[in-house]
Specification:
single chain, 115 residues, 72% helix
Amino acid sequence: MATHKLQTSTSIVNTTSNVSLIKRFNDFADGQQPYAIVWWIVSLTVLGGLFLPLTFLLVYSLGGPAAPFLALSMISFFASLVANMGGMGIRVALSTFFFSIALHLAMIVITVAAY
């Protein structure tokens, strides 16, 4: 009976997966699909009850640029509202919500820094 010699070379491949920020956000948003109504209520409450009044209060009381910040604030709020109520996907709804929060925070920082 003949014997066969097996030659094997074992190599360890070290692979690192670089997951982009957009991929991570999309995975997060897809996982939040069952909670779309909760995100709608949270966006209305947080934007309409916290960030809009806070931005208006700070801009008016500290003498910031009221007209442009008012326009940006209302446009971002209604964009988030339309994205949630218009039946767009959860990715669009969450991205407009987080973008609106970032925009309001930037307006607040600009107003306070200019004071």
